[in-house]
UniProtKB/TrEMBL annotation:
<comment type="similarity">
    <text>Belongs to the mandelate racemase/muconate lactonizing enzyme family.</text>
</comment>
<keyword id="KW-0479">Metal-binding</keyword>
<dbReference type="InterPro" id="IPR013342">
    <property type="entry name" value="Mandelate_racemase_C"/>
</dbReference>
<keyword id="KW-0413">Isomerase</keyword>
<feature type="domain" description="Mandelate racemase/muconate lactonizing enzyme C-terminal">
    <location>
        <begin position="140"/>
        <end position="233"/>
    </location>
</feature>
<dbReference type="Pfam" id="PF13378">
    <property type="entry name" value="MR_MLE_C"/>
</dbReference>
<keyword id="KW-0460">Magnesium</keyword>
<dbReference type="InterPro" id="IPR029065">
    <property type="entry name" value="Enolase_C-like"/>
</dbReference>
<dbReference type="InterPro" id="IPR029017">
    <property type="entry name" value="Enolase-like_N"/>
</dbReference>
<dbReference type="GO" id="GO:0046872">
    <property type="term" value="F:metal ion binding"/>
</dbReference>
<dbReference type="InterPro" id="IPR013341">
    <property type="entry name" value="Mandelate_racemase_N_dom"/>
</dbReference>
<dbReference type="InterPro" id="IPR036849">
    <property type="entry name" value="Enolase-like_C_sf"/>
</dbReference>
<dbReference type="Pfam" id="PF02746">
    <property type="entry name" value="MR_MLE_N"/>
</dbReference>
<dbReference type="InterPro" id="IPR018110">
    <property type="entry name" value="Mandel_Rmase/mucon_lact_enz_CS"/>
</dbReference>
<protein>
    <submittedName>
        <fullName>Mandelate racemase/muconate lactonizing protein</fullName>
    </submittedName>
</protein>
<dbReference type="InterPro" id="IPR034603">
    <property type="entry name" value="Dipeptide_epimerase"/>
</dbReference>
<dbReference type="GO" id="GO:0009063">
    <property type="term" value="P:amino acid catabolic process"/>
</dbReference>
Length: 348
């Protein structure tokens, strides 16, 4: 058996500038990996590096030749464990870069067996939660419009980015435009512990489901303070990067928000999900602003999740890859008629 691997950088403008408490993003730089077997069958995966975790498209491209050499050395696309541990041995850190390769190899392995990836894992495709659609920070009228557009597109689960002096106004605007939607909020570390507890109180009045990452990850005691006093469940995102972080957050939040690009691969993501379950946490899978080259893979995990936040491709003006159709938030795994992750060039 032999494998041939290559990569390509893709720059994708966003539909709208996307703002969170830390800053604004107008384009996403992803790196797409293709791994091809001797019969010419190709698996595809994507890296969506996040500067918050020290990665950029440049750092991904810098380590990619070593990662692809490692895959070609193992040579067997079904040796998923060997490949992921080899990737970790070759490149420490750089989880988004490793993740792209892991996804491409998983895609290829499932394609060779002729099954969707979730079938290879034995998951029930009818058991997928809906994904939320994220409303970034903006002026209040734009936020109201975006929420109305999302409802119009069929979304019934919205996630609102907060962390401003207008938090209450923004939530009220979304509630006005989407009176029946399930709402979640994400402060991206912007609140103090006391502020978070106070805000959770009025967010509960507006029927919000949970608050995500209320306080900075560097303040684990603050997270515990919020968890013990908050009227709403607390989700940890920036505080929970890999499976190894799960024990430390287990007694200071209700929900672990895992992302493929944080964990560094699909096997590692499944390990993190198992770790969170073992610690009695609920599980959410989030994403960066990502092409379907990687979102389609995250969608395969959906039956393992309580909450999905996989709208990364929906925020793009145009995605060069198609995947599982998530346009109204429904993750239709049961309708997936393609083997692998379902990712493919958009023009196909
Ligand atoms: Mg988050």
């Amino acid at each position: 058996m032999s494998l041939d691997a290559e990569f390509e950088r893709v720059s994708m403008p966003l539909e709208n500038p996307f703002t969170i408490s830390r800053g604004t993003q107008t384009a996403a730089e992803n790196v797409v990996v293709r791994v091809t077997d001797e019969a010419g069958m190709t698996g595809v995966g994507g890296a969506a590096p996040s500067s918050h975790y020290g990665e950029t498209a440049d750092t991904v491209e810098a380590v990619m030749p070593d990662l692809l050499d490692a895959v070609e050395r193992v040579g067997d696309p079904h040796a998923l464990h060997a490949i992921e541990s080899e990737l970790r041995a070759v490149v420490e850190g750089n989880p988004a870069a490793r993740c792209a390769v892991s996804i491409a190899v998983h895609d290829l392995a499932a394609k060779r067996l002729g099954v969707p990836l979730h079938r290879l894992w034995g998951l029930d495709p009818s058991d997928a939660p809906k994904t939320s659609f994220t409303i970034g920070l903006d002026d209040t009228d734009r936020v109201r419009e975006k929420a109305a557009d999302a409802v119009e597109a069929g979304h019934s689960v919205l996630k609102i980015k907060l962390g401003t002096v207008r938090d209450r106004e923004l939530v009220d605007a979304v509630r006005e435009a989407a009176p029946d939607a399930r709402l979640r909020v994400d402060a991206n570390e912007a609140w103090t512990p006391k502020e978070a507890v106070r805000k959770a109180e009025w967010l509960a009045d507006r029927d919000v489901e949970f608050v995500e990452q209320p306080v900075p990850a560097e303040n684990p005691e603050g997270l515990r303070y919020v968890y013990e006093r908050s009227e709403l469940p607390v989700a940890a995102d920036e505080s929970c990067v890999t499976a190894a972080d799960v024990p430390a957050i287990a007694d200071r939040c209700d929900i672990a928000n895992l992302k493929l690009m944080k964990t560094g691969g699909l096997l590692e993501a499944r390990r993190a999900i198992a770790a969170a379950r073992a610690h009695g946490l609920e599980v959410m899978c989030g994403c960066m602003v990502e092409s379907n080259a990687s979102i389609a893979a995250a969608a395969q995990l959906a039956p393992l999740l309580d909450y999905a936040d996989l709208d990364g491709s929906l925020l793009l003006a145009e995605d060069p890859y198609a995947g599982i159709n998530l346009s109204d938030g429904e993750i239709r795994l049961a309708e997936q008629d393609r083997a692998g992750t379902g990712a493919r060039p958009a023009e196909e």
